[in-house]
Amino acid sequence: MNEEEKNTFMMETMRAIGFSKTEVNVQRLKWNYLCFTDNLFQIYDEDLLETVHTGSAADGMTGGPYFSGEPSDFDSMLVLKRVQLLSDDESVNVLYTREDMKTDFSEDDIMKFQIRVQAEADREFPGYYKLKVVQTYVDPEVFINKDGHYYLQNYLGRLEKTIYDIANRSGLIQEDNYPLKRSFKTSLRSPHGPASTSKGSETGQSLQHIRQMVGRKDKQIEKYIEFEMDNVDAILYRGWPEEANCWISRVRPSGWPNRRTMEKIRSSPCYLAPAGHFDSHDREIQWRLSFNHAEQILVEEFSEVQIATYALLKIILKDYIKTKDKDTVLSSYIMKTIVYWCSEKYEDEFKDTNFFPFTVFCLKMLRKCITNRHLPNYFIENRNMLNSKFTSEAATSLIKDLDIFINDITEVVVLLSFQKIFTRSSEDRSVLQMAKCQSIALGWLEARLGILERLFFIGNNNSLWQNYVPYRPKENLNRFTLLLKYVEKFPGNLWLFKRLIKHCMGMLSYSVYLRGSRACPGYLQMAKELLEQTEEVDGSGFPLKTATFYYAEGEIDHAVEICDRVLNRGAQVKHRGRYVDYLYEIMKILINQIIKTDDQEVLDRLMVDIEKDISGFEDFTIFYSRNKSEFEMSLLNAPSIVCGEMCFDVIFMAAEIEMLPLPLQFEIVSNGIFTSLPIEQTLGLRIHPTLYALFLKFMCCYKQRDQSSCRKIISTMTVLQLQIEEYYHVLFHNLMASCFAILAEKEAAAFHIMESLKIDPTNNNVSFWYLSAAIKNFMPLFHQFNQDAVNKGHRCKTT
């Protein structure tokens, strides 16, 4: 092959292993979605301002199933809300402590920010700041005292615990009650450089793992994998840093990035990350300026050649340099910085035939920086990214490694990351084209089903209610209205997610209407419109809540119709907890179909449809066409079909209490009746869909005075205990007791009350209320009987 053919061949290879512009966009859209949903539920969080996904995953640079290199890491930045950075025009010269602040602020206002700091630029180490504490509700002794001032240390473990303890003592943090428990962070993270490492099996990771296992018969595909995620605490930096003004004004021979992108970057937020400079004596109180948002915008502007070059530099780093020196000073971030700099200076076009020349151009610049032991930060030029830890011996070794690829860039083909694709394709470009299309199709499928996986956890794990205030429907309605506005700003349709939020708004609108004694019919109309739009959100939970609305409004037939519809989906409801397993099975089936497809025309048509789809991501439109093969239809329609199989539990929040049948109102408030916890802290109730469908249908039939149907429903409910999880058994007996009590069958009601108390003999169980009420009602009769006996001279003896 001549040089032009070599360039074209390697570009096609990079696309085949997952670094085409389309596949990178698909992965980036998925991570943008996950980040967006994380932040949506943190709008009212007391501790976190936002979560920012960083690193290769957020850039979409994870590689495809034919990429056999090291998997990318998953990083996130947790932006703290309780530490507030003063703007440049704000100045505080006196340290305000807790006692000082109590005279000027209310307790609630103080707790909103906890700590206010001023940023002092470190002139010796550009891009680093010291954060002087000027206002604190926390004991100043937890900070570092230097030259008569207190500074915020960049390991926040002790500080986090102090803030948590103060908030807990003041009653501002409460453990939520059964059954909707949420976990609060009480343990401290250990530092790992500027980041702390945690392990987990976050949604979306497992599906990506399955996609990456294509062609690997030597390893078993696991549904839940353990992976590491680096978390960095950070503080929001207001405005554009003065130190970075040179980035705005400098001359760029290539014209990259363009003026529009630069303006977008200048208006994006920056952060201060807890990392001190290696050579600084003050590194424990230094915070490093982070341009994470700006960097993601730049990667979005990358051409396919820039994407491929960035990926290839990372491959050289991980497959060659790090195998010889695992502690090398080079990192993926340094490689990305080199691509940024070279993109500004490279004056030729970013086209396929210039792939190798541009890559070598980047390697030569990196070599020059290593020789001089000086690599300027892309945004702050006078900050050297190579510190004194980078010795001349390490520099000499790195230069030798880089020279191998500078002298002959085709040496990259022997690296591990290309092993799988070259085993399959050799030099057959048609196979590479097919592999690229298959990789994009697999990436699209994984992203689509990954979003559904996240939606399932959102709907079933109470994420929607993280912004919720108990017993305040109007305030909650305002909050969910704001959430919907945020959703509208997301660059994608988010059709299903909007429906989830609109359904909550419909239920809350109706609660406001009822709480206002039905005096504001506008809220009733709003509730009806929103709930009619969202009746088919899932196969059980949300429709049954809509049925409750119809029950409360006296539209009994409509409520019964929905209950019957849910009951007819018995198998789907029964296996709702295995929905993620179902996703995995569907994905494995479709993966096998994709990798067996060798018809290039079919694959090309798929690429056109996928390109159209990602422009309006998360619409779940079904792709109907007579010209499509059965395989195309099954693949493209999979997200919509799988979405239709989603089922949730029925969850009622305390703000919706007015519309519920009386027994469920008792369940929600029972936590506050016998305990020291006020009712306002009770969040809500989770119910098995089949149990609730039968109970609500019973209540509907009772309203219609159809006792025959009521008894048939009770017979069906009786055998339900053996079919539902133990978690719901207490509620099952309580609802059975209510049904029998309504039918005046007191012995059967008493039996279920006692069965309920056998399982949960605590005062959180509403059966305590039932038992207490029965005793209270009985005691006046007992006293009257006793008095009558005394009057007759036959006093009743009691023990």
UniProtKB/TrEMBL annotation:
Biased composition (Polar residues): 185-207
Annotated region described as Disordered, given as residue ranges: 184-207
Pfam families in alphabetical order: Mab-21, Mab-21_C
Domain Mab-21-like nucleotidyltransferase: start-end pairs: 219-300
Residue ranges occupied by any Mab-21-like HhH/H2TH-like domain in the UniProt entry: 312-401
Record family assignment: Belongs to the mab-21 family.
Protein name: Mab-21-like HhH/H2TH-like domain-containing protein
Organism in which the protein naturally occurs: Mytilus galloprovincialis
